Amino acid sequence: MDFSPPPRRPAQENLLPMINVVFLLLIFFLISARLTPPEPFTVTPPEALAEAEAQGDFTLFISADGQLGYRDLLDDPALAAIEAARTDHCTATDCDAEPPRLTLRADTALPAARLAQILPRLSPLGFAQIELVAQPGATP
Questions:
Q1: Count of beta carbons in the 10 Å neighbourhood of residue 110
Q2: CB neighbours of residue 54 within 10 Å
Q3: Helix/strand/coil for 125
Q4: Which CB contacts under 8 angstroms, 24+ apart, belong to 78-86?
Q5: Residue 132 to residue 46: CA distance in whole angstroms
Q6: So what's the pLDDT on residue 46?
Q7: Which of 56, 60, 99 has the alpha carbon at shortest distance from 79?
Q8: For residue 113, is pLDDT > 80?
Q9: Which of 52, 111, 118, 127 would staple 102 via disulfide (CB 3.0–4.6 Å)?
Q10: What is residue 49's predicted lDDT score, i.e. its pLDDT?
Q11: How many CA within 13 A on the CB side of residue 22?
C-alpha cells in the first residue's frame, strides 16, 4: 500500500488584485479627463502664421454667416450662457490673479467686417483677453 500524499494541484493565480488596479486606473482617468462640450456647428478656422496656439478657458464659435454659438446655444442665449459661465468660473477661482480668456473659433468665410461688428458685443462679457483661433498656413 502506498500512503504517500496525493499530488498537489498547482495554485491558481488570483486575478482579483489586477482587476482592482485596472478599475482604479479607469476611474482615475475618467475623473481627471477634461471633457469638452460638442461644437454647436462646424467651423473652418482661417490660415495664419501663428507663433503660439490660442488657448482660452471658454470657446465661442462664429459661423460663416456670423451666427454665434456656445455649447448648444446660439446667438444672444449663447452670449448670456458664456457670461454666466465666466461668472461661475470667477466665483470658484481668483479671476483677479489670472483673468479668464475667451477663444474665438471663427469660420474662414466670415467677412472681417462682420467680425468687427461682433467684437463690441463681446467686450461687456468681461474677458481680459480674446484670442482668435487660426490654423497654420503655408510659409511665404
A1: 20
A2: 18
A3: helix
A4: 78/40, 79/121, 79/122, 79/125, 82/58, 82/125, 83/124, 83/125, 83/126, 85/58, 86/58, 86/125, 86/126, 86/127
A5: 9
A6: 67
A7: 60
A8: yes
A9: 127
A10: 62
A11: 5
Instruction: State the pTM of this model.
Output: 0.62
Cβ-based neighbours of 13, under 8 Å, separated by 6 or more: none
The CA-atom distances, in angstroms, between 101 and each of 5, 14, 28 are: 76, 51, 28
Q: What residue type is assigned to position 80 of the chain?
A: A
Q: Where are the alpha helices (DSSP H) in 6-101?
A: 16-32, 75-92
Q: Whose grid coordinates read 502664421?
A: 49
Burial (Cβ within 10 Å: 0-12, 13-18, ≥19) of residue 94: exposed
* C-alpha dist (Å) from residue 43 to 6, 32, 62, 65, 102: 74, 28, 7, 11, 16
The predicted pLDDT at position 137 comes to 63
Task: Check: CB of residue 86 under 8 Å from CB of residue 125.
Answer: yes
Cα–Cα distance between 80 and 124 in angstroms, integer? 11
In this model, does residue 38 exceed pLDDT 80?
Answer: no
